[in-house]
Amino acid sequence: VSLRCAPLPAPLHLVAGLLFSNAFPFGEKLSMAKSLTTFSRKPFKLNPSLETVAHFLDATRQGPMARERFWIPLCDSVMNVPVETAPIRGLGEVLNRVFFGTRRDSTFAIASKPLSDLGFDRVPSYIDVKGGKVHFHEGVQVFQTDSKTFEVTTRSDKKFSGDALIWAVSPSSLFALWPKDTWPAIEKLPQLGKSPIISVHILLSQPVTKEHFFGLSGAKFEWVFNRNANWGWKGERIDPHTMSTQPNHAQYLSFTASAADPLARQTEKELVDLAMAELQERCPAARQARVLYAKVTREMAATFIWSAGTDKLRLPCETPFPNIFLAGDWTNTGLPATIEGACVSGHRAAAQVLTHFKKKA
Prior knowledge:
The protein is of the alpha+beta class. The chain has helices at about 10-20, 25-35, 55-60, 65-80, 90-100, 125-130, 170-175, 225-230, 270-280, 340-360, and strands at about 140-145, 150-155, 160, 165, 195-205, 215, 225, 235-240, 245, 250-255, 290-305, 325. The protein is built from ten helices and twelve strands. The radius of gyration is 23 Å and the shape is globular.
């Protein structure tokens, strides 16, 4: 089954894509379309009693296929918390930007390389050209500030100061380093909590798909990425006798599970077995494939737990100190803890620094 947007201007591309999709019964399509219009304009016309995504799905009578194939995997992936926890206004902000912006806003972007290879090695030289410097392995140990100056001391006892400072660190790091009794809001940061993301990377003995990625309906592992297609991974091997490069027909798949607290403490074997069982149940071509290699990665603090209770704990860019600013996907951007939210926070912090300098001039 699939949901493909039509080659029409937004939001008609979504309407047509939903209308002709074979993923949902016709009655559920109508219910989905009507509920999505709630987020077409701001402010959203939401009943104040509807706090969570689950409340919204019940109130708008979303059907089982709509929940399984659209709402739940979308909420898990974007919010990294289950529908019972996720604030509907937060998901609504995403729906508004994705489906009621431009066609470009609703397109999928898939990295053509591992994220660590996408230009990050060029960042230090770029910053150096601009007059800055990147200090690796120099974790900050002490932070001191008043209304005019600041000083950070690193692991190797180096000291740095300047005209302005942007903290782009996790809530736990900021909580540990911030001077005590200078900002009551900092003391509540541990209450943001931590939500994990689990990935299982499996090398299969034969190809099972040509798609760049696909979803596993109703599965714990919602998405599967085909690294042969994403990254051009060929799986070449070296012949030990001739030392020549030989083709390998293996396929490299990455499975991801967001809002993965129920899976986080399972063993590596249990997670690999689960990922394969879910794949083989939904993809007959995978039933003859053997697992050649598997590895599990766990990010136990991938995001904070965004809920109605923690929403008010997200901090603004500005701090009580006029030259100290905050950035990070967990700050109060109005977006989930995603790359997009992190970028918004970074641009906002940079703008605040420029404004600060203009005031000083």
